[in-house]
Specification:
Blueprint: E1 8-9, H1 15-26, H2 34-39, E2 50-54, E3 58-70, E4 75-85, H3 94-108, E5 113-117, H4 120-123, E6 129-130, E7 136-137, E8 147-151, E9 162-165, H5 170-182
Parallel strand pairs: 4-5, 7-9
Antiparallel strand pairs: 1-2, 2-3, 3-4, 3-9, 5-8, 6-8
The structure holds coenzyme A (COA).
Coenzyme A (COA) binds next to helix 1, strand 4, helix 3 and helix 4.
């Protein structure tokens, strides 16, 4: 096999190959997912975009993370994904290697809470758990059984609640709270 299970930092020049890999792994309809609403207007979290190179298929796998704010207190979190492995290289440990390396880097960089929408049985392998239903909301439809979190610091989920948005939409979180307060019945 022509790859090593060694994740390395993604380069700006990898952008087109990563997009191609995501199309291969998820199909062309991937951009309609709610996770994409969470990435709009943001840059990936620095230091956490990794790839595994392969002399035959180009990129065997790729992972990135995106900045988020949650609820009226704008609590920070990061979104894991997309994580994609080339169809010809799946079930060889590439996805796991990318997750383990990037989550360790996220912890070193001081990130505390990771969330994602994905297959619970797969992500449970590295410690992700289902979020309590109703605790967090997303700006689009999602299956609560696939809405998962991982604490990189014990207790990181405590006190985190509300709508999850990319940081540039933070003002809407205050607005939502304000509208809710204004529409409270009097007396
Ligand atoms: C899902 C994906 C990232 C996994 O990466 P990978 O490198 O193929 O997987 P790994 O080698 O790390 O892990 C393989 C193990 O996970 C299991 N697994 C793989 N995908 C799974 C899934 N969606 N749900 C549950 N288990 C899964 C495999 O059965 C295998 O189990 P085993 O170790 O008991 O044999 C990759 O297959 C992929 O990009 N798929 C296309 C996109 C997709 O379906 N994403 C859904 C996840 S959100």
């Amino acid at each position: 096999m022509s790859f090593k299970l060694t994740p390395v930092a993604a380069l700006a020049a990898d952008h087109a190959a990563i997009e191609n890999l995501l199309d291969l792994a998820f199909g062309l309809g991937r951009r309609t997912k709610t996770s994409y609403r969470l990435r709009e207007g943001s840059m990936p979290v620095a230091g956490l975009s990794l790839v595994i190179r392969d002399s035959e298929v180009g990129l065997a796998g790729a992972i990135s993370y995106w900045p988020l704010v949650v609820g009226k207190d704008f609590k920070p979190a990061i979104l894991l994904g997309p994580l994609a492995v080339h169809p010809a290289r799946q079930n060889l440990g590439i996805g796991r290697a990318l997750m383990i390396e990037s989550l360790a880097a996220a912890q070193r960089l001081g990130h505390q809470l990771v969330i994602l929408v994905g297959d619970a049985p797969y992500y449970a392998r590295v410690g992700f758990k289902k979020l309590p239903e109703g605790l967090l909301q997303l700006p689009g439809p999602f299956d609560p059984a696939r809405f998962l979190y991982l604490e990189l610091v014990e207790g990181a989920l405590q006190g985190v609640a509300g709508m999850v948005l990319p940081p540039f939409r933070q003002a809407e979180l205050s607005q939502t709270e304000l509208s809710a307060a204004l529409t409270q019945p009097h007396g």
